[in-house]
Amino acid sequence: MNISCIGCRYVGLVVGTCLADRGNEGMCVDIDSRKIAKLRRGIIPIYEPGLQDMLHRNVKEKRLSFSTDMKRAIKSSQVIFITVGTPPV
Fold first, then answer.
1. 66 to each of 17, 79, 88, 89, how far by Cα in Å?
2. Taking the model in full, what pTM does it have?
3. 3-class SS at 71?
4. 51: phi > 0 → left, psi -120 to 50 → alpha, else beta; which?
5. CA-to-CA distance for 28 and 71, rounded, in angstroms?
6. Checking DSSP bridges between strand 79-82 and strand 64-67, what pairing results, if any?
7. Does domain 2-82 bear CATH number 3.40.1160.10?
8. Widest Cα–Cα separation across the chain
9. Percentage of residues in the chain with pLDDT exceeding 70?
10. Are the C-beta atoms of 19 and 26 separated by less than 8 Å?
11. How far, in Å, CA of 23 to CA of 34, rounded?
């Protein structure tokens, strides 16, 4: 299944990586091009035990990718998770 996570902070990155590790095609999308460039180089902005190895494995196996192209992510996905920050009330 093709899945996208819009927002590459803690929730989006973990969800996208875990779903890719379960055999899905995952794309993590963010408007921050610097963050996407770092993720493409394997630099993860958070710490979660085991995440770095899982992310690297799924990128290498081409099940996980990172993009700033929101339209492409939406068009190519069967399921989309919106994992952006929620403003305080």
1. 11, 16, 27, 30
2. 0.90
3. helix
4. alpha
5. 13
6. unpaired
7. no
8. 41
9. 96
10. yes
11. 27
Evaluate the CA torsion angle 21, 31, 80, 85 in order and state its sign: positive
3-state helix, strand, coil in the chain (%, to 5): 40, 20, 40
Query: Residue 66 has which token pair?
Result: 């990172």
The domain spans of the chain are 2-82
> Strand 25-29 to strand 64-67: parallel, antiparallel, or no bridges (unpaired)?
parallel
pLDDT in tens, 25-66: 999 999 999 999 999 999 999 999 999 999 999 999 999 999
